[in-house]
């Protein structure tokens, strides 16, 4: 009876985590971009109620969710992808403009240059894709936008944000809001991944280990691996804290 209750509680916990993951990943179909964002407090409260009482890992993961995400909500990936395309277009047109602005001729030249610089089919070299060191100071605005778009098209918002953070001048000012919203999304996704890994690992206790020493040993091993995964994700959350402000300044 107690085992059945434990399984039921884990299923509720899992469902609550999945609901939060869906809210972060995809917006409601047919919803306008400016209305797709909503507070995540209902999903977070559901997780808090369904989670084992005083579970330190769950508490730490929930604390890792930015306050903006809980109180206001996050823009899902599809909304941020559409928003990026607009930011990219404006940033290209302002590539020559410094952050403090410029004279009208500079704006005109920057706008004209944006039409003369062609987008390459594969803007990132093979060595760069293999994570070899590069001189980021050698990248101009167009190079940065090319690389950011490359990773965006592949669904890697973390790499997209890393490149966008290299922007300077007016393009950086244009992209600042997008970078901040992407940071909020990534930090929230990290917390969701932690919760899902945790509930998946601890749920193995209830998967028929009784009467099967080998299965019990396998489950213990998977639980240990899941625990290590959760710890690694939490360490990443902690490492992000001091960098949070620097991502979007």
From TrEMBL:
Lineage: superkingdom: Eukaryota
Membrane topology of this protein: Single-pass membrane protein
Keyword Mitochondrion: yes
Subcellular location: Mitochondrion inner membrane
One matching Pfam family: Mitofilin
Record GO biological process: cristae formation
Keywords: Membrane, Mitochondrion, Mitochondrion inner membrane, Transmembrane, Transmembrane helix
GO cellular component: MICOS complex
Primary localization: mitochondrion
Entry keyword annotation includes Mitochondrion: yes
Family under the similarity heading: Belongs to the MICOS complex subunit Mic60 family.
Assembly and interaction partners: Component of the mitochondrial contact site and cristae organizing system (MICOS) complex.
Functional note: Component of the MICOS complex, a large protein complex of the mitochondrial inner membrane that plays crucial roles in the maintenance of crista junctions, inner membrane architecture, and formation of contact sites to the outer membrane.
Name of protein: MICOS complex subunit MIC60
The organism's taxonomic lineage, starting at the top: Eukaryota, Metazoa, Ecdysozoa, Arthropoda, Hexapoda
């Amino acid at each position: 009876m107690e085992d059945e209750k434990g399984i039921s509680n884990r299923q509720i916990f899992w469902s609550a985590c999945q609901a939060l993951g869906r809210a972060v990943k995809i917006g409601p179909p047919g919803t306008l971009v400016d209305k797709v964002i909503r507070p995540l407090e209902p999903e977070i409260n559901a997780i808090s109620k369904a989670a084992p009482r005083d579970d330190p890992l769950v508490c730490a993961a929930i604390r890792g969710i930015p306050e903006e995400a809980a109180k206001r909500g996050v823009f899902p990936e599809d909304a941020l992808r559409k928003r990026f395309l607009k930011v990219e277009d404006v940033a290209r047109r302002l590539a020559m403009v410094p952050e403090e602005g410029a004279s009208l001729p500079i704006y005109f030249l920057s706008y004209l240059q944006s039409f003369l610089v062609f987008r390459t089919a594969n803007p990132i070299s093979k060595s760069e894709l293999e994570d070899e060191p590069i001189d980021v100071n050698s990248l101009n605005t167009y190079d940065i936008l090319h690389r950011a778009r490359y990773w965006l098209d592949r669904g890697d918002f973390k790499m997209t944000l890393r490149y966008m953070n290299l922007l300077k001048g007016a393009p950086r000012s244009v992209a600042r809001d997008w970078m901040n919203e992407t940071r909020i999304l990534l930090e929230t996704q990290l917390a969701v991944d932690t919760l899902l890994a945790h509930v998946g690992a601890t749920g193995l206790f209830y998967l028929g280990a009784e009467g099967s020493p080998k299965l019990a040993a396998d489950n213990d091993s998977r639980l240990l691996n899941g625990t290590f995964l959760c710890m690694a994700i939490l360490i990443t959350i902690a490492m992000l804290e001091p960098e949070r402000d620097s991502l979007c300044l």
